Amino acid sequence: IKKVYNLLVGDRTAEDIKIEIGTAFETDEEREMEIRGRDLVRGLPKTLTINSKEIREALADPVASIMDAIKVTLEKTPPELAADIMNKGIVMSGGGALLNGLDKLVSQETGMPVYLAEDPLDCVVLGVGKTLSELELLRRVAVVPQKMF
Q1: Is the pTM here over 0.85, yes or no?
Q2: Could you give the dihedral angle defined by the CA atoms of residues 125, 119, 85 and 133, in that order, rounded to the nearest 10 degrees?
């Protein structure tokens, strides 16, 4: 939005845009949203209407980075675990998992089923909390030096 329209929007507005009309996968239904920000040329408040196609294009590089990270991770995965992932699929978590169509794109690119975690925003931190409550188990399975914990 800043590059194309010279419009500066806040973090909250950017998040709202991502949630309301952001998409990683082309859909039949293009949606629009009216946004407000500060015109960087005139320095005054400005309102404009953007659509989901524009946001998909703006998200193309970050989405490509996510796809690259998934592919690299799968390439480095031990064969036994890779077979399980192929059979059971990928579970996406975190805020990025909520991007509309990202699950479809990941499934299309990997050929695997993709699922959204039950509570994608909180499940990572909840999992870390559970792991830290089982430090002895963590010490046995960790691939980092034991001195770290």
Answers
A1: no
A2: 30
